[in-house]
Specification:
Shape: globular
Low-confidence stretches: 1-5
Order of helices and strands: EEHEEEEEEEEEEE
Mean pLDDT: 87
Largest sheet: 4 strands, antiparallel
CATH architecture of the largest domain: Beta Complex
Bound molecules: zinc ion
Strand content: 35-45%
Structural class: mainly beta
CATH class of the largest domain: Mainly Beta
Strand order of the largest sheet: 9-10-11-12
CATH superfamily of the largest domain: Domain of unknown function (DUF427)
Number of domains: 2
Oligomer: single chain
Number of strands: 13
Helix content: under 10%
């Protein structure tokens, strides 16, 4: 999983070049039609990655990455759950998905599991992220939760919402 603070890099194996393209795809055997997955690509890997997807009829379109990948955003109305070690951390049917990450309403967090963290990171288009650690049954998952309390305008829809990584399963 990509840390939220990094500028996107190419998805090609071993390539760390900055991504210039978003290859938007959907595998009809795995994804409902409204799901859109995004691979990022540098100029050099755009043809090989898009050919790979097109050969399987997964490729929907290729967007320039000058702006945040609009394809990565969706408002999901199906019930979505975040679990860590089997414990439900958050549950909601009001999810905003950006760059493949589900952002939960803060009030959807179940119980007293968030611990403030001093960690911050910067995203060029979303702004400053702050973090929480999770504490569940005496175990701590450091910085497993991030949020944008005052994002830039382009990311206003995720203001105050929470996203999870570091082994937290979202389904
Ligand atoms: Zn590349």
């Amino acid at each position: 999983m990509t840390p939220p603070d990094e500028s996107p890099v190419c998805s090609a194996k071993g390539c760390r070049a900055p991504a210039r393209w978003a290859l938007v795809w959907n595998n009809p055997r795995l994804h409902t039609p409204d799901r859109e997955k995004v691979w990022t690509a540098c100029d050099a890997h755009r043809p090989t990655l898009s050919d790979h997807l097109a050969a399987r009829s997964f490729l929907r379109r290729v967007d320039p990455l000058a702006h945040p990948p609009v394809a990565g955003r969706a408002h999901d109305r199906s019930m979505t759950t975040a679990r860590w070690n089997g414990t439900v951390i958050a549950e909601s049917d009001d999810i905003v998905t950006v760059e493949g990450n589900a952002y939960f309403p803060r009030e959807s967090v179940v119980g007293d599991v968030l611990r403030p963290s001093a960690t911050t990171s910067h995203c060029p288009w979303k702004g400053e992220a702050s973090y929480f650690s999770l504490e569940v049954d005496g175990k701590t998952n450091t910085d497993a939760v991030w949020t944008y309390d005052a994002p830039k305008d382009a990311a206003a829809e995720i203001t105050g919402r929470l996203a999870f990584w570091k082994g937290v399963e979202v389904s």
